[in-house]
Amino acid sequence: MPVTDVITSPEDLTIRVIADFAHPVDRVWAAYSDPRQLERFWGPPSWPATFTEWDHTVGDHAQYHMTSPQGEKAYGSWEFLEIDPKNRFVVLDSFADEHGNTVEDLPAMRAEFVFEPTEQGSRLTTVSSFTSLEALEQVLSMGVVEGLTLAMGQIDAVLEGLRAYAQGKGTRTELLSDTHVRITRLIDGSRELVWRAHNDPELIRKWMLGPDGWEMTTCEVATAVGETFHYAWAPVGDVEGQPFGFEGELLFVDEPSRAVTTERMAGTPGPQTINDLNLFEEDGATLITTVIEYPSLEVRDMILGTGMAEGMEMSYARLEELLSA
């Protein structure tokens, strides 16, 4: 996690965030001055950002929105006030409506980004300044510090490149909060192929199997918002275990990059999770990222304790073999 300190100062009406990177200033600057790289980490894991306009020139603007797991959009706007390439830039960061117009009754902030070299790589200091204590407190109550910290936790994959970040490291599980977990796995293959493998029943039956000795007995896929899915498995032959399954509803889809579903054990009222699947392709490989929201810490630990991640790795290994063939 690159964020090393967050300092809130009611006296100065500022929020200061310090992040350290094992990369030179040039690389970090490039990530913040390219909207395609920036949108990969600007929004929190379950609210990814999309920049729809970008003119990195003093006096001009950037427009973006962040999309929730249910498909709701929160809009924002940057006005570039100062730019000193590879050293510093300053924006007026405002809440906006869907047309890019500033929402006047929500607080705007002056955000200064300062890039400095260090012995280990570089440091980014972001200082957000507010016009009143009420504005500062309103933004804090909206969870901006937690959201920014989680968002910054995604930048390593951007700075390192997907292969250096994830290749050969298997399925990785990160605890983001008491109720959020991020699971990542790099697959050699295009995003379109990985998407198809998650949505074509014939392909799903070949890889989504978990441990050896199990077969998929039900594979009903949801492809449109509001549809439900149902997957079920059973042991084969002398393999021990009880048949089980999962079911849920497709909440949001953006083919071929994102799908959000609810999930619970089939035939039960819950507990229910929200699974946010995102696919990003770079250099012929696709990073599968699934952010899971649990209803409680206890449910999170119970489900992780079942060996879920190990089973996912077995399935992903099959997926990689399938796509390579």
Radius of gyration: 22 Å
Domain unit count: 2
Principal-axes geometry comes out as: elongated
**Text of the CATH class of the largest domain:** Alpha Beta
The structure class reads alpha+beta
Q: What is the end-to-end distance?
A: 36 Å
The CATH superfamily of the largest domain is START domain
Average pLDDT, all residues: 94
- SSE succession: EEHHEEEEEEHHHHEEHHEEEEEEHH
Main beta sheet: 8 strands, antiparallel
Label the CATH architecture of the largest domain: 2-Layer Sandwich
| Count of separate DSSP helical elements | 10
Determine the oligomeric state from the structure: single chain
- Residues in β-strands, percent: 35-45%
Strand order of the largest sheet: 1-2-8-7-6-5-4-3
The total count of strands amounts to 16
CATH topology of the largest domain: Alpha-D-Glucose-1,6-Bisphosphate, Chain A, domain 4
- Binned, the helix content reads 25-40%
Which residues sit in consecutive blocks of at least 5 with pLDDT less than 50?
none
Protein name: Activator of Hsp90 ATPase homologue 1/2-like C-terminal domain-containing protein
InterPro entries: ASHA1/2-like_C, START-like_dom_sf
Pfam families: AHSA1
Domain Activator of Hsp90 ATPase homologue 1/2-like C-terminal: 23-160, 190-323
How would you characterize this protein structure?
- The protein has two domains: about 5-160, 2-Layer Sandwich (Alpha-D-Glucose-1,6-Bisphosphate, Chain A, domain 4); about 165-325, Alpha-D-Glucose-1,6-Bisphosphate, Chain A, domain 4 (2-Layer Sandwich).
- It has helices at about 25-35, 35-40, 135-140, 145-150, 155-160, 160-165, 190-200, 200-205, 295-305, 310-325; strands spanning about 5-10, 15-20, 50-55, 60-65, 75-85, 90-95, 110-115, 120-130, 170-175, 180-190, 215-220, 230-235, 245-255, 260-265, 275-280, 285-295.
- An eight-stranded antiparallel β-sheet has the order 1-2-8-7-6-5-4-3.
- The model has no long low-confidence stretch (mean pLDDT about 95).
- It has about 325 residues and is α+β, with helices and mostly antiparallel strands.
- The chain contains ten helices and 16 strands.
- The longest helix has 17 residues, at about 310-325.
